[in-house]
Amino acid sequence: MKNTHLKILDFLKSERNFDYSGYHFAMLERRIQNRIIHLGSITPEAYFEYLQNNPEESTRLIENFMINVSHFFRDPLSFELLAKVAIPAIIASKQRSDEHSIRIWSAGCARGEEAYSVAMLFNEYFAREMEQLNLDFFATDFDSQAIEKAKQGIYTSTSMKEVKHGLLKKYFTEGDETYTIIPELKMKIQFSIYDLLYKNSYAPSESIFGDFDLVLCRNVLIYFNQEFQKLILNKLIKSLAPKGVLMLGESEVLGDSFKEKLRQISKYAKIFEKK
Ligand SMILES: C[S@@+](CC[C@H](N)C(=O)[O-])C[C@H]1O[C@@H](n2cnc3c(N)ncnc32)[C@H](O)[C@@H]1O
Hints:
The chain is α/β, with parallel strands linked by helices. Helix content is about 45%, strand content about 20%. It has two domains: about 1-65, no CATH class; about 75-275, Rossmann fold (3-Layer(aba) Sandwich). A hairpin with a 6-residue loop joins strand 9 and strand 10 (about 270-275). Helix 2 crosses helix 4 (about 55-65). The chain is globular. The mean pLDDT is about 95. S-adenosylmethionine (SAM) binds near residues 67, 143 and 196.
């Protein structure tokens, strides 16, 4: 069985350039199994044959590996600490140094909920300070369909469970069963495709030089094995400005080797400052 799963992954690599080597193998196996069950619990061998004869199934399977599940203000305490501790420190340092841009990157942004949540925070808590500062906000994912959805900014109630009523009224237009981000918020963020495993760059090309004050990479590292987690983390650290802030997902753990590069700024959230 494992052998067939490997053949399936090798097939995706040669046909669709999907490099699976850095992902947790067990996670990929589970996702293949989900597709097999979805198609009527056929054998893995029969599924492999089906995959080879149906190009659209490769797309379905790769989509199944990309877990775009997210929602606005996922882990509300982390967002609160971002607004109360991390962002005020970034703004204060900009004011001291007379710099005029705050640079942000949401890496692995899925359909954009995380990036829009941060944009709402800036609007809500720092409107006065932001009269003197620009926001250069980049949000990327390697899944082109997720990026298209992020640009459209249309969501269903599953994304909305942590959105306070006042924010819902202010930043969304409500349809029958949809919630659409207002254009004023949409235009604050540049969404684009970027693979965190690209070897020849450490930040999206739109951002030109990285130098981010805040990087969010949440619930992305968990899908990678340790070697690739290190690779991605080193890239993110490189993309940060001196004293820049990195925010990870709640269940993500930093290896000891990163403790000399990053200092955790709150014990209640995975928010770190570059040393
Ligand atoms: C669970 S979502 C996280 C969304 C959001 N950051 C959050 O915490 O709610 C994981 C995202 O990582 C993206 N991803 C996985 N591998 C990637 C890679 N190599 N480069 C860029 N994005 C990747 C997936 O496409 C997916 O949208």
